């Protein structure tokens, strides 16, 4: 458990933003792993086997929890609003590495991801967030590689649309401010 | 390129995987296309959010292992307890079924013999139903002719 705990926690952190939920999911993973240890045939790595169990358990837990239908600007905290405004004003490629900003962004990411399906969350977090390959996702989920690609394409679109809704009022405000200055 | 929207291009692969040449084409397009410019900005923000979100992960707390092992023991004992309970329930069910079978057997084989005995004892007292109903010439209730005549004459004398 000491050896694979961090890995299982990392998988659970893809789905949950609260420590208590991550721990709960990780606990279920180890309990299931203990009860099904006999079914591990030793073909792949134990870590891979645990990762698959963790992914399936987390997907099921997220599926059973209520999904946020839509994220609106009023759901954002002041920090998150400010982060979005800065992001919009700043150079698009620039990354802010300040710890506080990262935490705000991580929370905001969690909020946006909650509006997506569990499958979308998983594929986006793994491919776009962790730079995992399509093959890695296919192995972890048991999906075909073409399914992973299609899922990722659609998930990116849904995430972009959700973010665009949050950015729209800010773009209008920014434009109005620029027009006033002119 | 001006008339070719770049939305599919930005959704085909992660933002980090878009080549410099593709980025140049995208920038050239979004300069004149407002919807694509908005989509591109949102895609860039999404990419940053996903990176920041993935960078944050939780580490197991020092008590995590103890808690998991305690829960494991708890579940194992609960499962053993439920098996024991099931066995007890099965035993109770089996013994009650056996009791019912015995009761039915007793009623079937023992009860008819009891009713036969009562019939026999009724037959042994010497009376039959016909005798009880039709036996109306008992001597104790019989009135003699002389007594009838006496009572008639007494009534006339009184008049």
Structure, described:
The complex is a heterodimer of chains A (182) and B (159). Chain A has 182 residues and is mainly alpha-helical. Chain A folds into two domains: 65 residues; 115 residues, Butyryl-CoA Dehydrogenase, subunit A, domain 3, CATH 1.20.140. Chain A is built from eight helices and no strands. The radius of gyration of chain A is 19 Å and the shape is elongated. In chain A, 32% of the residues are buried. With 159 residues, chain B is mostly helical. In chain B, 75% of the residues lie in helices and 0% in strands. In chain B, helix 2 crosses helix 3. At the A-B interface, helix 1, helix 2, helix 4, helix 5 and helix 6 of A face helix 1, helix 3 and helix 4 of B.
Features:
heterodimer, A: Butyryl-CoA Dehydrogenase, subunit A, domain 3, 73% helix, B: mainly alpha, 75% helix, 0% strand
How does the SSE layout of this entry go?
The complex is a heterodimer of chains A (182) and B (159).
Chain A (H helix, E strand, L loop, with lengths): L4 H11 L3 H17 L10 H19 L13 H12 L9 H16 L3 H12 L4 H8 L3 H37 L1
Chain B lengths: L6 H6 L7 H11 L3 H22 L8 H46 L1 H14 L4 H6 L10 H14 L1
Helix pairs in contact in B: 2-3
Tell me the number of structural domains of chain A.
Answer: 2
Mean pLDDT of chain A: 83
DSSP helix fraction of chain A = over 70%
Oligomer: heterodimer
């Amino acid at each position: 458990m000491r050896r694979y705990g961090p890995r299982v926690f990392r998988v659970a952190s893809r789905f949950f933003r609260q420590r208590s939920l991550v721990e709960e999911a990780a606990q279920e993973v180890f309990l299931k792993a203990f009860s099904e240890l006999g079914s591990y045939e030793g073909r792949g790595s134990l870590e891979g086997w645990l990762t698959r169990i963790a992914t399936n358990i987390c997907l099921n837990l997220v599926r059973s929890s209520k999904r946020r239908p839509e994220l609106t600007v009023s759901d954002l905290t002041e920090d998150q609003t400010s982060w979005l405004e800065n992001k919009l004003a700043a150079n698009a490629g620039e990354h802010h590495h300040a710890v506080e900003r990262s935490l705000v962004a991580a929370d905001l990411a969690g909020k946006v991801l909650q509006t997506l399906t569990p499958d979308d969350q998983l594929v986006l977090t793994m491919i776009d967030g962790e730079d995992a390959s399509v093959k890695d996702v296919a192995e972890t989920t048991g999906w075909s590689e073409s399914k992973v690609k299609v899922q990722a394409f659609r998930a990116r679109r849904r995430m972009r649309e959700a973010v665009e809704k949050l950015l729209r009022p800010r773009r209008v405000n920014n434009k109005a401010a620029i027009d006033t200055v002119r | 390129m001006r008339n070719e929207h770049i939305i599919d291009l930005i959704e085909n692969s992660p933002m980090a995987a878009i080549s410099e040449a593709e980025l140049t084409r995208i920038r050239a397009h979004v300069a004149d296309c407002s919807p694509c410019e908005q989509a591109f900005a949102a895609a860039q923000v999404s990419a940053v959010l996903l990176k920041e979100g993935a960078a944050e992960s939780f580490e197991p707390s020092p008590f995590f292992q103890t808690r998991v092992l305690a829960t494991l023991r708890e579940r194992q004992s609960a499962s053993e307890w439920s098996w024991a309970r099931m066995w007890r329930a099965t035993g109770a069910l089996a013994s009650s079924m056996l009791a019912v079978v015995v009761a039915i057997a007793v009623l079937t084989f023992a009860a008819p013999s009891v009713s036969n005995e009562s019939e026999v004892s009724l037959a042994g007292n010497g009376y039959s139903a016909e005798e009880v109903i039709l036996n109306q010439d008992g001597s104790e209730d019989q009135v003699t002719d002389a007594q009838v005549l006496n009572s008639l004459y007494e009534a006339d004398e009184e008049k």
